[in-house]
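Example 3.
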Amino acid sequence: NAGVMQNPRHLVRRRGQEARLRCSPMKGHSHVYWYRQLPEEGLKFMVYLQKENIIDESGMPKERFSAEFPKEGPSILRIQQVVRGDSAAYFCASSPVSYNEQFFGPGTRLTVL
Amino acid sequence: AQSVTQPDIHITVSEGASLELRCNYSYGATPYLFWYVQSPGQGLQLLLKYFSGDTLVQGIKGFEAEFKRSQSSFNLRKPSVHWSDAAEYFCAVGGLGNTDKLIFGTGTRLQVFP
């Protein structure tokens, strides 16, 4: 059973461009979580999704950030008009049910030039 | 607001020495508790978790943690550290009422000297 997959692993964007980060949860997992890790900091929760629904987006910046988890395909975290402060590692986690262990992917490291 | 505190930013130990990493949380009820390890440039791997029951939890790689309700603590221990244990360790809490998110501490970086 493959683990949580994230791609790309590294992404470089110039200020003002869009970044799209993809996350494929483990097989049988319908709960997806996105976290952001700024340099030298712990992980901060961004958003929690189930198939086709956003359950909790309390950690998501109000502007430029959006997330989806369609019926088919991976979960997407989209950052529009990136700024230097968006440079971070973005981790996706998945779980088969809520209030359970979350399995983390390897992360996408976004660098904004 | 809920929070997780890892008071030690950086710890250095000699190989073979014992280890204890501290974690305290702030939450009204007993949360779910986790310890994750992150090697440089890698994702997070779960070492152990506590949901309920026996307060001494055994994990992978020889790690254990003890939940102490009276101290709101969940410290991670290992009796004899190996050089391969050098990494960043994160304590996290979950099961926080109406949200399923994990709240992480800021991490403790472990360095192991031969």
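The CA atoms of residues 90 and 107 of chain B lie 5 Å apart. The two ends of chain B are 41 Å apart (CA to CA).
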